[in-house]
Amino acid sequence: DNGLTFSTPVNLSNNAGGSAPPQISSEGISVYVTWEDRTTSNANADIFFSRSNDNGLTFSTPVNLSNNAGESNGPRISSERHNVYIIWQDNTAGNFEIFFITNNQPFGTFGNTINLSNNAGNSINPQISSSTTS
Prior knowledge:
Blueprint: E1 19-27, E2 30-37, E3 46-52, E4 63-64, E5 72-80, E6 83-90, E7 97-102, E8 114-115
Antiparallel strand pairs: 1-2, 2-3, 3-4, 5-6, 6-7, 7-8
């Protein structure tokens, strides 16, 4: 209805720790959300993801994408068709690196995390965009 009314808010992280800053991307009826979350036992932030396949009415159980002992934060998300691309900065190796992950298939599971920067210096504040080629 052109933004006149909205659905009831859904708590995606639903935990005792802090969850911020959320990022969102959508394609058709699919809605994808990523955020940094501080609820793991090591108290460092991890990158989480959840998706909806019904216009945001319901969401999947959140998945920990970074799942490591380091500090993972600043996630950004992009999607094209049913492919989801997520990038963030990660301080697992003792300096900040830029990590990337994608599902690469319709509603599929995510593959391995890739360290894009892989250098001795700090790499921070990643951005991401995607586009379809016909």
